[in-house]
Amino acid sequence: MAVGMFDGVHIGHQAVIRACRTTARESQGCAAVLTFWPHPSKLLRPDNPTPQILTPAAKRWAMARIGMDYLITLPFDQQFAQIPADGFIPLIKAAVPTLRSLFVGEQFRFGKGRSGDVSALQKMAASAGIHVFSMQQCRYDGESISSTRIRNILGAGKFNDLRILLGHPYTAVGNLVHGRGIGRQIGFPTLNIDWQPDLQPPHGVYAIRLLRDGSQASMEGVANYGLRPTFGANLNPVLEVFLFGDTATIGTFDEGKELAVEMLHFIRPETRFENPEALTRQIALDVEHAKRIIPTL
Predict the structure, then answer these.
(1) Domains of the chain, with CATH numbers?
(2) Which of 79, 116, 235, 289 is most deeply buried (CB count within 10 A of its CB)?
(3) What is the pLDDT of residue 252?
């Protein structure tokens, strides 16, 4: 079992998770990930919590992409935060009696006040018949790959760098909701997806791929994430997706269905246009831009 927050499920996290999966397959066992929600800072630093790169749903999609058998999410609440370091292994062992191995990053900490480190975990786990494997932190371009580094890259809208460090496209996962029908009125019908990330990417237009739950097939298109200022700004950002090809495809999606949007490339910032006609002309240009760039990504 791999254990950690794994926010972003970046290539450093994947080294830990894939090692767990490989060991499980070699021993004909099951591969699981144990993670936590919300981030501990929500409880311990409520005035300044660490914004998360992925929503729980997006983390679940990322783990499924890797091929993990189970994803276990424990609530990080006041009760869990009070568990001492020497209570961590008994807690896990009681929940998973057949557990044989734990996989963690070299900076893993556990127990009340982050009092336990990897060395302590190895000693405690050994007495319970559990092997602990610690993976070194990965580096790219001379710097450690960390969730903090990725948050900064996401905020700057550097999606090429983001894709390299994540090892997969940055993905928004949410449920299809009923929209206002504005896109259809201007010739670009959209899917409206309920997506409320902790850490918002830059508002604007993106080249995207869309995936349905349970399907490996993807569809290409463009998406706008933002406040739709041309039609009266929303209070909260919305994610709208226009798919290339037959516009009738939109009608094959059921409201409430979970969808994943891979945000491949940032095309331009969100802009307020003087009228719908000007917006329509720009969307046509965005579509052509996306059609050229997506095959190269």
Answers:
(1) 2-144 (3.40.50.620), 169-296 (2.40.30.30)
(2) 116
(3) 84
